[in-house]
Amino acid sequence: MTVSFCFYTEIDECQSDPCKNGGTCKDIPGSFACHCPDGFMGIQCETEVDACESAPCRNGGDCENYGGSYLCVCPEGFFGYHCETASDPCFYSPCGSRGYCLPSNGSHSCTCKVGYTGKSCEKELLPPTSLKVVRVEDTGVSISWYPPEDPVARQMIDGYAVTYVSFDGSYRRTDFVDRSHSAHQLRALASGRAYNISVFSVKRNVNNKNDISRPVMLITRTKPRPVEGFDIANVTASTITVQWALPKLQHSSISKVRISIRQPGDLEDRTVELNSSVAKYTFRDLRPGERYLIHVSTLSGLEMEDPPSESQAMAPFHVWTRPLPPQNLTASRVSATSVHMTWDQPLAGSMEGYIINVTTNQSIKSRYVPNGKLSSYTVRDLLPGQRYRLSVMAIQNTEQGQGHSEPAHVYILTLQRDGTPERRWGQAGQPRVLRNRLPPALLPELRLLADHNIPEEPSQAPSCLMLVFVFADDTQNCSTNPCKNGGTCIPGVEVYLCDCMPGFKGRRCELACKKLPHSCTRLYSETKSFPVWEGGICHYLYKRVYKVHQDICYKESCESTSMKIQS
Q1: Which of these, 123, 186, 431, 452, has the minimum number of CB atoms within 10 Å of its CB?
Q2: Which residues form the EGF-like domain (predicted)?
Q3: How far does Cα 135 stand from its chain's mean position?
């Protein structure tokens, strides 16, 4: 209420009721005063008071004037006499468009969107740069990056978040890296699988709701497992056959197997890629007696949208092709105890010698001849009437030891002993005579096996018969005992038989036979393994070594006892 006092010279001014708008006049000596009601002012209460003139309402409240007083009509989210209290602290979006406001006990906090940080998300959070893959293994990936380019943004962050997710979504993991580091090793990954890798800059907050930047991303694939049990299955003069097995657990992640071969001087590899269902391959058209390097690896992820990867490099396999075998192997001058063989030297390579094998159905004898220019050889000490398989292999020295060619074969049948008829038994157990006949010009059993697919005819098993010599003679009885040196005469129907004492042979046991020792050579083969380090990887090479040993052999020598007596 406003009280105004006015002084006049007139007397009894209140009689004229000078106060307006319900004002009360008070008589004052020589003047009067008007006591104005609420909402009015002035000497005579003639002026109405505007209570909203001072804008008492806050936060956008509307002021309404009520006769000297006012009323604040508050907007949504505020209340109070002057609209001074906020019921929703996030009503006016204190975080702006860069974050999300969260009310809490009459206050608020801001959760910033990706790429922003600060109390009201007013600062930009920059991502790292230059993300790249440093190394890929079968169960891990090494990555590196650079910090944000802006120095202020670099000091703002606390570290980096590294997130890696498999393509199929079955595996997801996030690692935190301190800001002092700019590289990370992802471990315990599945081999041969593709991963999406993202790296974020991280600003840690007190409410454990960290702010992150936009990510830098890359896609990579771990290496598949290498093949297992890789082995050289077969080697010829022009082919090398290899075989392998795939890891069972990681089989699904291997799409192909890559095999390459080359000689040390070649500029390019001969490479072939095979499906994972194939486990064997043969390289053809190779040079005989040459060294080759074979590499094998597995591939994974060869689809258009799937990044490929190759397994860890294995140490190359060093393989020598076999030298060419001797050509045109023939046998001539076949006798009861020897045969002469001739052949043409291989067309390619330098031979160190030859291995000659003499095979029957009971034994194999090997003879090594260290003469690479040899083209003929006479095999001796054979048994009469015996079927033999003779083979010749060329020997070439390599870095892995001695390599031998495929054998060239020829089959022969030695003649019966000259002048000695063959003893045959009849069904009744009585001896009969097979007269001497000349051998045919060409033995039907003598042939050159140039084709290894021709089946070998089995040799006849030897008969265990007592050695008895049967002769046709004018003397048909044993009255004069024609057998010498203690031989026993056995009478027959038309002939007699001489059963000789041990150490004697001949028609009438006239030959004294004994075994004479003589020096000979025998060939033995031995396979040894030795370690070789290449590129920090240890692998084993296998050598087959032929050793020549001096030995003592025995040869039967027979002399006529009648000649000794005469001398």
Answers
A1: 452
A2: 10-46, 48-84, 86-122, 474-510
A3: 17
